[in-house]
Write a structure and sequence with these properties.
This protein is about 55% helix and about 10% strand. It is of the alpha/beta class.
Length: about 240
């Protein structure tokens, strides 16, 4: 980590291959719409350093900052280049998303010291940011997330304090990551109770049903879709 440098994207074969695919899309479709998952600071750092990163936060804080700085700088540089080319083709994007899937492996104090500055840096570079918190409880990080400028999207797991999240982050588009295990294994009554709590404490919001297991019955998926429609219709009647 002490020797890490930001790559020269003009000469980096991985990035050049990505931009080559963008050119192919423009040639075929006339416009390069769509998005790349750039991951985030903690996710990428864990992929580069592994679980040793968690001890590095205590033992090598300066070197961790060097790594996080390199990751955020590369993300900003790469995304700005991509978005410039997309805008030239007619797709006008100007936001960044970060994936904090591993954030629950660090304390809120560590997030504030080591990761929040780089999430803020990316938010300020683009003006608008979305944060993927994965299916974990976001409770330890909610106040810190709410202080990030331009926060326009946030998701979290079922065990989060939804009412507090809605109060702290009232203007962002909010989502719940409902796990495929809950979808497959809970009773319909339990799922209804979960969704009614989500609607009561967190709406308006989205439900994300990612990674549905192949063995999950179609009837269960249809039940959840119909339940969402039912709860949305009830909310519309109340607001009217």
């Amino acid at each position: 980590m002490a020797g890490i440098e930001t790559p020269d994207l003009d000469a980096n074969p991985v990035f050049l291959q990505l931009m080559g695919q963008v050119e192919q899309i423009i040639g075929l479709e006339g416009c390069a719409t769509g998005f790349i998952n750039w991951q985030g600071i903690i996710n990428t750092a864990m992929r580069l350093r592994g679980q040793d990163l968690l001890m590095d936060l205590y033992d090598k804080p300066d070197v961790c900052h060097r790594l996080f700085d390199a990751i955020s700088t590369t993300m900003i540089d790469g995304l700005q280049r991509l978005q410039r080319r997309q805008r030239d083709s007619g797709a006008d994007y100007n936001f960044v998303t970060v994936s904090n899937c591993s954030v629950n492996m660090v304390s809120p104090e560590q997030y504030e010291e080591f990761l929040l500055p780089y999430d803020r840096r990316m938010a300020e570079a683009f003006g608008t940011i979305g944060i993927h918190n994965c299916a974990w409880s976001a409770d330890p990080y909610l106040e810190l997330y709410s202080a990030i400028p331009g926060l326009a999207y946030i998701d979290m797991g079922l065990h989060s304090d939804f009412a507090r999240a809605r109060c702290l982050i009232p203007h962002a588009r909010r989502s719940v990551m409902y796990t495929p295990m809950d979808l497959a294994n809970k009773t319909e009554q339990a799922i209804r109770a979960d969704f009614e709590r989500i609607a009561r404490d967190y709406a308006p919001c989205d439900i994300v049903l990612a990674d549905i297991e192949v063995g999950t019955p179609d009837e269960r998926v249809r039940f959840v879709v119909e339940l969402c429609c039912e709860l949305s219709a009830s909310a519309e009647k109340v607001s009217a």
